[in-house]
Each structure stands twice: as structure tokens, then as C-alpha cells.
Design a protein that fits this description.
The chain has a single domain (1-23, 33-65), classed as Cytochrome C Oxidase, Chain L (Irregular), CATH 4.10.49. Helices cover 67% and strands 0% of the residues. The chain has two helices and no strands.
Length: 67
């Protein structure tokens, strides 16, 4: 039973890799953002990480000012 599921999974992954139109071996090719413009990449990382790490402090400030 498990061998059959493993074989189906292996076949599915092989087909996925084969027909994904990926050339392979190029770093960053499968990322959802471009690595071409390093300044835009840096700005996006700052915004992404800053929003996630700063959100609790903004929520805390909002709750304290609500009183």
C-alpha cells in the first residue's frame, strides 16, 4: 500500500520537474521575486521584514492610545 503511494508520488514529482520548463542550475530562478536589481531587492526585504517585526509594536501603541 505504501509502496504504491510512493511510486505514484515519485512519478508525479518526476513529471512535475520534467514539464516545469525550468532550466535548472541557475541560482534564484525559482524565486517569486527578481534578483536582478539589488537596490529594489534590499528595499523589498526591509519593507517585508520591517512590517512583520514592527507590527506588534504598532498594535501595542494603538491599544495603549485607545484608553
Amino acid at each position: 500500500m505504501f509502496a504504491r503511494a510512493a511510486a505514484i508520488s515519485r512519478t508525479g514529482m518526476t513529471n512535475l520537474v520534467r514539464y516545469s520548463h525550468s532550466h535548472g542550475g541557475i541560482p534564484g530562478e525559482n524565486l517569486p521575486f527578481s534578483l536582478g536589481n539589488r537596490y529594489k531587492l534590499t528595499a523589498m526585504f526591509i519593507v517585508f521584514l520591517g512590517s512583520g517585526l514592527g507590527a506588534p509594536y504598532f498594535v501595542l501603541r494603538h491599544q495603549l492610545l485607545k484608553q
